[in-house]
Amino acid sequence: MENIDVVIIGGGPAGLAAALAAHDEGVSVAILERDHELGGILQQCIHNGFGLRYFKEELTGPEYAQRFINKIKESKINIFLNIMVMQITSEKVITTINPKNGVVHFKAKSIVLGMGCRERTRGAINIPGTRPAGIFPAGQAQRFINIEGYFPGKRVLILGSGDIGMIMARRCMMEGIKVVAVAEVLPYPSGLKRNQVQCLDDYGIPLYLRHTIIDIRGKERVEGVTIAGIDEKWRPIPGTEKTWDVDTILFSVGLIPENELSSNAGCKIASNGGPEVDEFLQTTVPGIFAAGNVLQVHDLVDFVTFEATRAGINAAKYAKDELTIKKDQKEVVYVKPGSDVGYVVPERICGIKNSKEPYGIEFSFRVKNPRQNIIAEIISKGKIIFKRKQKFVLPSEMIHLKVKLNPEDVGEEITINIIEQDSSINVIEKEMLEGS
Amino acid sequence: MPTSKLYDIAIIGAGCVGSAIAQRLSKYDIKTILIEKESDVSMGATKANSGIIHQGYFTTKGSLKEKLCLRGNELIDEIGPKIGVEYERIGAIFCATNKIEHETLEGEYIKSQNRGVEVELITELSRIHEIEPQLNDNVITILHFPRAGIIIPFELTIALAEHAMINGVELNLEFEVVFIKRDTENDVFEIHSDDGKKIKAKTIINAAGIYSDKIARMVGLEDFIIIPRRGEYILFDKDSLPLKKIIFPTPTPASKGIVISKTVHGNFFIGPNATEIESKEGINTTSIGLNEIIAGARKIIKNLPFKKNITNFAGIRASTHQHDFIVEESSIPQFINVAGIDSPGLSSSLAIAEMVEQILKKKCGYKFIKKGDYIPTRNKQILLSDLSEKELSEKIKENPQWGQIICRCEQVTEAEIVEACNGPIPVKNTDMIKRRLRPGMGRCQGGFCLPKVMKIISREKDMILERVTKTGGKSFIVFRRTKLLSSEVIDKGDLL
Questions:
Q1: Which CATH architecture does the domain made up of A121-253 adopt?
Q2: What is the mean pLDDT of residues A308-333?
Q3: ipTM (interface predicted TM)
């Protein structure tokens, strides 16, 4: 049994940042990574666009990861590669296996979960048709091209305009793989605007919004695909079918946080698929923290780094017994996603009720629909206790609210709403907001 | 293979029926060959069905289906443990939601009692929900068959085929029979493949599933046609719904209805519907079909966990107008038809094999002499999940590949995949590994492990990655390296 203060599960962007932050707090840290190198999914994201927020410069995925890896290599952080975590217990005993040392147990004072996410599959969204070779999750196709060095196909249709799908559309075109179209079930692209412009528009790839695949043909390898427009109940509209002869279909239809380990450790899983956490990013199991895509699927890796840094610091403090909140918090305030809000992290706040001064909290969440001229408001005890005006919100972009709330304003729960500016506030308030 | 070799018996079709017959015959001193057009056994109707060991219910009195299903249900206890296949008798329940359905179940209850089957009719609501808490509240009666069970059809078939091979039966994969010549002078059949290969045998057992009518026509028999009936399924993730039983609605004359059942590996599925289709290869799923099975499942159970579905698939039943199994020597001597094996075909397969053995003995003049060197058991491959921590540590010390997890969803190690690659049936593609060890069956559907599995197959089978297929034939997964050194640029040709 290896005794370590803070064990980080996963050596991707979340794990790297959490490890460094915890290490800076002066505790012993280990990273457990199943791959043969650190960096996680960033290693296959060879496009640029990473780091604008964190480093204020534009990096590729491997470059972004390498900056952290270099620091980690200079530090005293223990790196375990090719190691698979089989189980985590609520007592924070971690069972692993690896080819060199066999079954190894770690005992941690605290843990940061950084396992990331997996891709939603074709089967999970019930796309009909045959099941030949040539159907790939977009991230897997990315791995084939960027890491393994193989063409996964020659003519491709992509379902889903998530960021990976759009990035892969461009990547395919660069390698000489023809992308016939991208189809998206929603009425708007589900990835970042910049990716729509740089990856689809610039390459003349048509984007069919409110369309989905209604048939896949081919016995051995994909031979063709048919998409159709859908009505408001998501049913295909007859007469809108478009068919292509393609040999490959990529699915970029969402990411799912990988929480089988967390769940088995006893962490309560929230509706967005990530563990329920408090404002310290601590799960419902004391001493187990979560950050990055295992907690909530992020739009930018920079935000993963910020979030994981917080988790790393808090995990180290927990290990040192310095985390201010008590383990048995009774006065918990629950955070509810209100109108047009998909989910909110954190789901509960433990420290505010005992605070004697305004309490700083960072919320992150996503909206359900693209909206203009909105107000993000926080409501508790029937009153608006915070609001912020915003010109645009998109489901593809996370919203971060750093707020200070007065403990006396807060009841048993608080709700975050997205509302339209005009309908919700009177003229005086509107003027106040616009003046601000 | 030398074309001159003469076999006693050629079994055409390596589904559960063909493989069960091969396994049965492998005990005896008979030269048997099992012929299959696909790259693996279990690729037709067997591959995608409900995987239920039925208990003779809702079969016609006096039919082969009734007799063979009941016998097959017994035989699994005799054969299953010997060949290392897992099954679980979790019991099946039929549910009635109104008076008419209740009466149907009452009728079946009496019929089942007359069959001597263990069965219980339950109308007490508290007991109904105790037996299966996931049922809807509108279920008023259930008919409980405790000896019904679940099994993975392709695991059974692989085990049967491998056990046959251990005992000397030859398996000839990717041999698509295109014509059969009767050499009446020598009393021999010549079986020809699409690529010019030839197999000679004294006796043919036509177990070709949905193609059994086509095979029968090759010798001039036109007494039955197979009507492909597609059944679609949706599979859900492990532990997403704690089901205790195999759940049926009250059957109608047309179909047993949409089943909800857990699988041996802890997943659960809903399906199948029943659609007559033109094509024998029509294993595509459809929006209409998937909606139909969802609606069907919702009638019986509450809490269908919609975010937890991981895949959908379809299989084809080899039905006939006769509505009963055809297991007989045909009007052509030494040509035995085993056809029309739709539900409960899987449950009956072991009994069908027993019946074929009798036909061979009584009608075809075979004298069954037991092999002296018969190996009565087949050891199941040892899996990571079978090992204690200590055992695993030992294994890793011996072979570090035991410490390399390839599939994280189903927890499969490199050592297991390597062993399967070198098993009795030559593994050539990723689906074969998937059916044997389950990488790619889990919630990520191979999103992470596919490239790794491909690399292992490529290494173990000494073939370039471009040649590794998903399911044989031309189902190539990748088709060329993106970057080649100038010294490497040779015309490998595009494989797609």
A1: 3-Layer(bba) Sandwich (3.50)
A2: 86
A3: 0.93
